[in-house]
Amino acid sequence: MPQTSCFNLVFSASPGNVRTALNDLCVFLENNTISENHVGTAQIVAGEVLNNVVEHATRHQADGRIEITCEITFESLIFTVCDNGTPMPRGGIPNKGLPPVDTTLDNLPEGGFGWALVHLLTSGITYHRRQDKNCLKFTLPAIGKSSLSE
Amino acid sequence: MNLSSSHENGFLVVSVNELRIDASVAIQFKDRMREETENGETRVILDLSQVDFIDSSGLGAIVAAMKQLGTDRRLDLAGLNPNVDKVFRLTRMDTVFKLHRDLSDAFTH
After folding, report:
1. Beta strand pairing status for B99-100 and B74-78?
2. Residue range(s) defining the domain that contains residue B16
3. Checking CA distances to A86, which of A129, B22, B32, B75 falls within 20 to 30 Å?
């Protein structure tokens, strides 16, 4: 049986704490000899998900809390991110594609990349709302889905 | 948000002296870029060689910085580390900005 190793952190929702959490996550992954490329991808995805919680779900509450778990299995990183914020709009994960970039300077997008990055880099993403908590699960395959992630 | 600028080879070079351009500093970055690029050369190079992480907010702030320059000036990027380069390629922003390996590459292309 391959051994698994697990990272778990609970913190109050704020941009500064997201930074610290991402740093701790990267240290954990590096200590478990995850490749630099995959640590980088994990930080991009976890950053988007955690920022989304801070900027939307817990935006108007002082007691916003986030729990992030990352389990290293033989061939993937399995993430769970839960928070006590408001539900996702329309009860599900926004399934946004990339905003178009083939446009004039004035119309270039300054946002809307976050969920697109998450969808591009993860697999098996699920969302549940239980006991007033949001719970998002997703997997980073050891070999990225997109050749661009290599 | 620590940015500094210099005038080199007919370019305005703005260096980001930070490890991260993320959601917590994106607005500051945009404001500091406005200050650093208010005057100066038509061609601006943003030196990202010290930055090892950007998120989608940071990316949006770099796009905003380019828009601030208007259509008569140009913003190129230099010295992207692998994780930064990845975000530009995944979002297709590598087709919007000219990405240079380093500053000397930016001066000659």
Report:
1. parallel
2. 3-108
3. B22
CB contact under 8 Å between B86 and A51, yes or no, is no
Nearest chain B residue to A105, by CA: B67
Query: Domains of chain A (ranges plus CATH)?
Result: 5-149 (3.30.565.10)
Q: Which residue of B has its CA nearest to A108?
A: B63
Rounded to two decimals, the ipTM of the complex is 0.92
Question: Collapsing DSSP states into helix, strand and coil, what is residue A67?
Answer: strand
Q: How far apart are CA A30 and CA A8, in angstroms?
A: 15
pLDDT digits (tens, 9 = 90+) for A69-116: 999 988 899 999 999 999 999 889 988 789 999 999 999 999 999 999
pTM of the model: 0.92
Give me A139's structure tokens. 């997997």
**Domain containing residue B23: CATH number:** 3.30.750.24
Report CB contact under 8 Å: B87, A54.
Answer: no
Instruction: Mark yes or no for CB contact B95/A101 under 8 Å.
Output: yes
Residue of B71, B87, B79, B67 whose CA lies nearest to B103:
B79
**With an 8 Å Cβ cutoff, are A51 and B53 in contact?**
no
